[in-house]
UniProtKB/TrEMBL annotation:
Binding residues annotated for NADP(+), in chain numbering: G166, R167, S168, I232
Full protein name: Bifunctional protein FolD
Protein EC: 1.5.1.5, 3.5.4.9
Tetrahydrofolate dehydrogenase/cyclohydrolase NAD(P)-binding domain mapped to chain residues: 140-286
Catalytic activity: (6R)-5,10-methenyltetrahydrofolate + H2O = (6R)-10-formyltetrahydrofolate + H(+); (6R)-5,10-methylene-5,6,7,8-tetrahydrofolate + NADP(+) = (6R)-5,10-methenyltetrahydrofolate + NADPH
Keywords: Amino-acid biosynthesis, Histidine biosynthesis, Hydrolase, Methionine biosynthesis, Multifunctional enzyme, NADP, One-carbon metabolism, Oxidoreductase, Purine biosynthesis
InterPro entries the record matches: Aminoacid_DH-like_N_sf (IPR046346), NAD(P)-bd_dom_sf (IPR036291), THF_DH/CycHdrlase (IPR000672), THF_DH/CycHdrlase_cat_dom (IPR020630), THF_DH/CycHdrlase_CS (IPR020867), THF_DH/CycHdrlase_NAD-bd_dom (IPR020631)
A Pfam entry, by short name: THF_DHG_CYH
Residue ranges of domain Tetrahydrofolate dehydrogenase/cyclohydrolase catalytic in the record: 6-121
GO cellular component terms given for this protein: cytosol
C-alpha cells in the first residue's frame, strides 16, 4: 500500500470537539441546548445501530436528543402528523427521519413536510435548490463530510477533475454541487455511463457512492488520485458474521492512489459528526445568531 489512509474517525472526533465547544457557546447565548429529533420507523437492525450512534453523539456534544420509535404499521398520515408537531416544537432545531421508510409511506412527501430550517439532512427541495444556487442551505451530511476530508487532503479543489460515481439525491447530486462550488471540474457518472473505468481514470478526485461492493478497481484509479469511498456494504464471510466493504476495492486502489478513505472508519463517522454540526448551525440560524465559526 502506498496511499495515505484518511482517518475519518479522527477527523470526526476533532469536528465533534469543535461542535461541543460551539454548543457550550450557544447555550450561554441562547439559554437552551440545541435539540435534534430522530424518527425511526420499524426495527431494521442496521438503522437502529445508526440511530443509536447519532443519539450518543448528540448527548456527547451537549445537545438534547428526542427519539421517536414508531412501528412499521404506522400510516403515512400519522408520520406526517408527528413531523408537523416536531416542526412546531421550539426545542427541536433539527429533524432526521431515518431512511429508508416502509413501502407504504412516500418518503419524498415526508421529506417535503419537514420545515426546511430544521432539515438537518439537507434533503428538502428548498435546501437542494439553495445549495445549487449558492444560497445558505442545510447541506447533506455525507457529502459535507466527504468535502471536508478532500479539503483537508488537498487544500484547494480549484480546477481538479472530480468524478462522482452515483447520482442519488442524498449523496451524488449534492456532492457534485459542493465540488462545483469549490471550482472543481465535475463529472457525475452512474449505471448508464459508458466506459466508466476510463472516465474514472481521468479523475484527480474520485467519490464512489454506488452501493456495489468493491466495484471500483485499482486499475481505474489515476496514480496520485484521492479516493473517497461512501459505500457501506455488508458482504458474507465464512464465519457467517459478514464484514463491511466499500464501493472501492481498497487494497488495489491503495496501491495507486495518493490517499483513500477506509470502510469502516472513513466517511461513516464523518457523516455523524456533520449531523451534529448541522444541528448546531440550524440552532444558530433559528435563534437569529450568526453561523458558528470554524466548523
Ligand atoms: N435520514 C437519514 N439520514 C442519514 O444520514 C442516513 C439515513 N437516513 N439512513 C441510513 C444512512 C446510513 N448512515 C450512516 C451513518 C454513519 C455510518 C457509520 O458511522 N458507519 C461506521 C460503521 C458502522 C458499522 O459498523 O455498521 C463506519 O463507516 O465506520 C454508517 C451509515 C446514515 N444514513
Amino acid at each position: 500500500m502506498t496511499a495515505r489512509r484518511i482517518d475519518g474517525k479522527a477527523a470526526a472526533a476533532a469536528l465533534r470537539e469543535r461542535v461541543a465547544a460551539g454548543v457550550a457557546a450557544f447555550r450561554a447565548k441562547a439559554g437552551r441546548a440545541p435539540g435534534l429529533a430522530t424518527v425511526l420507523v420499524g426495527e431494521d437492525p442496521a438503522s437502529a445501530v445508526y440511530i443509536r450512534s447519532k443519539n450518543r453523539a448528540t448527548a456527547e456534544a451537549g445537545m438534547e436528543s428526542f427519539h421517536h420509535q414508531l412501528p412499521d404499521t404506522i400510516s403515512e398520515a400519522e408520520l406526517l402528523d408527528l413531523v408537523g408537531r416536531l416542526n412546531a416544537d421550539p426545542a427541536v432545531d433539527g429533524i432526521l427521519v431515518q431512511l429508508p421508510l416502509p413501502g407504504h409511506i412516500d418518503a419524498s412527501r415526508v421529506i417535503e413536510t419537514i420545515e426546511p430550517s430544521k432539515d438537518v439532512d439537507g434533503f428538502h427541495a428548498m435546501n437542494a435548490g439553495r445549495l445549487a444556487t449558492g444560497l445558505p442551505a442545510m447541506v447533506p451530511c455525507t457529502p459535507l463530510g466527504c468535502l471536508q476530508m478532500l479539503k483537508d487532503e488537498l487544500g484547494s479543489l480549484s480546477g481538479a477533475n472530480a468524478v462522482v460515481i452515483g447520482r442519488s439525491n442524498i449523496v451524488g447530486k449534492p456532492m457534485a454541487q459542493l465540488l462545483l462550488g469549490e471550482s472543481a471540474t465535475v463529472t457525475i457518472a452512474h449505471s448508464r455511463t459508458r466506459d466508466l473505468p476510463d472516465v474514472v481514470r481521468r479523475a484527480d478526485v474520485v467519490v464512489a457512492a454506488v452501493g456495489r461492493p468493491e466495484m471500483v478497481r485499482g486499475d481505474w484509479i489515476k496514480p496520485g488520485a484521492i479516493v473517497i469511498d461512501v459505500g457501506i456494504n455488508r458482504v458474507p464471510t465464512d464465519d457467517g458474521k459478514g464484514r463491511l466493504v466499500g464501493d472501492v476495492a481498497f487494497d488495489e486502489a491503495a496501491e495507486v492512489a495518493a490517499a483513500i478513505t477506509p470502510v469502516p472508519g472513513g466517511v461513516g463517522p464523518m457523516t455523524i459528526a456533520m449531523l451534529m454540526r448541522n444541528t448546531l448551525v440550524a440552532a444558530h440560524r433559528r435563534a437569529g445568531l450568526n453561523d458558528p465559526e470554524g466548523l
